[in-house]
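Retro notes, item 3 of 5
We never archived the inputs for the adenosine-5'-triphosphate complex last cycle. Fixing that now. Sequence and ligand:
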Amino acid sequence: MSTEIAPTDPNVRIRVPRARVAAAADDSQPGSKIETKTVGQVTVADAVMTARRVNVHYGEKHAVKDVSLDIGRNAVIALIGPSGCGKSTFLRCLNRMNDTIDSARVDGSITLDGVDIYEKRQDVVQLRARVGMVFQKPNPFPKSIYENIAYGPRIHGLAANRAELDEVVQTSLAKAGLWEEVKDRLDHPGTGLSGGQQQRLCIARAIAVDPEVILMDEPCSALDPIATARIEDLIDELRQNYAIVIVTHNMQQAARVSQRTAYFHLGELVEVGATNQIFTNPRHRLTEDYITGRFG
Amino acid sequence: MHTSVIVVAILVLTALGYRLGRRRSVALVGGPRGTRNLHSLPSYYGFLTALWCALPALGVLGAWHLLDERVIVGAVLAELPPDMQHLPADQQGLLLNDVRNVVSGSLPAAEARPEVQSAAREWRRLQSLSNAAGASLALCLGLAGGALAWRRISPELRARNGVERVVEIALALCSMIAILTTIGIILSVLYEALNFFRVVPLTDFIFGTTWSPQMAMRADQVGSSGAFGAVPLFTGTLLISLIAMAIAVPIGLFSAICLAEYADRRLRAVIKPLLEVLAGIPTVVYGFFAALTVGPLLRSAGQFAGLEVASESALSAGFVMGIMIIPFVSSLADDMITAVPQSLRDGAYALGATRSETIRRVVLPAALPGIVGGVLLAVSRAIGETMIVVMAAGLAAKLTFNPLEAVTTVTVQIVTLLIGDNEFNSPKTLSAFALGLVLFVATLLLNIIALKIVRKYREQYE
Ligand SMILES: Nc1ncnc2c1ncn2[C@@H]1O[C@H](COP(=O)(O)OP(=O)(O)OP(=O)(O)O)[C@@H](O)[C@H]1O
Ligand SMILES: [Mg+2]
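Structure as it came back at the time:
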C-alpha cells in the first residue's frame, strides 16, 4: 500500500448523486406555525433535515412522542436529556437505523433535502450514505485501517480506481485528524488503535462516503479528556462541511460544540433553542432543573 | 455376610455420623443461636464426620476384596498333597480352575477328584473367614473413624476446609480418569503399532501403494502377498472426506448464515433443533441410506449420463457423510456468527451497507477463524467415520481419485482386519493398530488446531 499520496486537492470532491427537491411545506420556514408543545423555535432557515410529529414505539413502549425538529445546515445541534428519554431513538430515526430493530415502529415524517426518507421508494442504502453515523463505543471493523475507511466508498462505488480510493482514504483520515498518526501503518488492524484513535477512525469512516449529515451518539463517552477535546475540535471543524447532530450527557460539551441545543424529557422534546440561551436562560422549568443539575 | 450388606451398614453408619457430628457442633456452642461462633456451618461438621466414617471403611473393604483371593489361593495350594504342589504352572492353573468351579458351583462336587473336593472345601472355609474378617475390620474402622472425628469437633475445627479439600480431590480424580483413559489408549495402540513396525518397516507402511493384508499361512499358499502399503487407504479417506466437506461446508455455512442473519426468532426455533437432529441419527442408519438409496440412485443416474458408477462408490458414501456433518458445521458457524458484536453490524449498516454486503464484508470475515475451527472439527469427524463407509464405499483398496469407484478408508480397514478369527500377533492384525495410530494422531492434530483457533477467536471480543 502506498503511503505517498499526492497532497489533497481541495477541489476534488466526490458527491453522492442526490435529488434536490425544493422544500415543499412552508412550515419549514422560521416563524411559521407548527403544532407543537415544544418551547422555543424548532425550525431553522436553512434546514437540511426536518422531523415533523415523529412518534416511535418499541412494541407497547412509546419512546419518542410527537417530536418536531429541524436540523440546520453547517451547524451542530446537541440533543441532551436524562437517560432513557429517547435521544438515541430519535437520532436513529434520522438515518432509519431503527429499521434494524424488529419491534420499532416510526410514525410521522422526516425529510432530507425535502424528500421524505420514510417513503416506500426511499432506498435506505442511499439514505445512510448521506446521513452517516458515529456510535457511542468505537466499532472499527476487524480489518486494516485502510480497509476500514475504504469500505464505505467501495460499497457505494465512489472511487473509480485505486488511486482515487487512496485519495479518499487520505482525505478522510486527514479531516478526522488521524492521518499523521496512522499514515505509516495503514495496513495495521483498526482494532489495534487506542480508543480515541478508534473513534476518530470511525468518524473518518463516516466522512469517507461524504455524507451531508453526521449523527453522533455520545461519541466521547468512552474516551479520556484529551481524546475528547480532540474530537470536540474535530466536530467544530467538520461543521464547515456537514450538519452534525450530537447526543451528549456532558453539558460542557454541548455548550462547547453546538449552536443549538434540544432538551428531551420522557420521550418529549421539551425545549429547543440557541445553545447559549438554553444554558444561560432556559425558558422551561424542566430544562432549567436539568442543566442546573437538579435532575438526572 | 454378604458384601452388599456391609456396604449398606457402612452407609447407615455414615448417615448416623452426619447427624451426630452436626448435633455435636451445634451443642458445643449452646444451640442453634450460637452457630455464628462455629468456624463452619454445622452441616460441614456433619459431612466431615460422615466422611471419616465412610472413606476408611469403604477403602479397606475394597482393598480387602482385591487382595484376599491371592492369600486364599496360596493357602489352598499349601494344603494340597505334596505331589500336586510342584506341578508345572499351566497344570497348576487347570487344577485351580477346577477348584474354583467347584466352589462357585458350576462344576458338581461329585464329579471332581477327591483332592479337588477337599481343596474346594478348604477354599470355601477360608473365603467365609476372610469375608467375616474384612467386614468386621471395615465396620470397626468406620466406627473408629467416625468416633475420632466426632471427638475432634470443636468450634475452632476448620470443617469446611476439610470437606472442600476432599471434594476437590474427588473432582480431580474424576478428571484424571478421562486423561488416564486417553493416555492408556495411546499407549496400548502405540505398543501394538510398534510391534507391527518391527515386522513391516515404517517406510513401506507410509509410502507403499499396495494394500493387501492377507498373509500366507503356509509357504505354498498363493494370492496372499501380505502387502501393507497404506497409501490407498489414506487417499480413500482423503477422497471421501473431501467429498463430504464439499457437501457439508457450503450447506452448513449457508444454513448458519440463514439462521443467524435472516431467520426470525420463530423460524430459528424450528430449524435449529431440526438441523441438530441430523447429528443424532445413528450412523448405521445413514449407512443404510447411502447403500440402499443414494448408491443405486447415483448408479442409475450415471448410466443415464453414460458414466460407469460402481454400486459402492466414494461419491455415495461421501455425499451421505456430508449430510451427516452439516449440523457440526452449521451449529458452530452459527455460534460464531452470532458472537460477532451487533455494533459491527450497526457500523456497516450506518455506512449504507446492505444486509448481504454487511454479511459478506464484515460479519463473515470477523467470524472466519471460528468457522474454520468448526470446519476442522467436522473434518476430523469425517476422517473417523466408519459405518457409512463400510456400508456404502466398499472394501477395495484401490489407489484412485475417481469418486465413482469403490474405495476404502483407514477406519474400514481397521474394522475388517479385526473382524473374525485372527492370530493376535500376526502382522495383519497388528496393522490395524498402526492404522489406528495414524488415525489418532491425524484427528488429534486437527482437533488441537481447531480448538486453538476457536478459542483464540472467542477471546477476541471479550
Ligand atoms: N431496542 C429497544 N427495544 C425496546 N425498547 C427500547 C429499545 N431501545 C430503547 N428502548 C426504550 O426506549 C426508551 C428510549 O431509549 P433511548 O435509547 O432512546 O434513550 P436515550 O435517551 O438514548 O438514553 P441514554 O442517555 O441512556 O442513552 C427507553 O425507555 C428504552 O428503554
Ligand atoms: Mg442513548
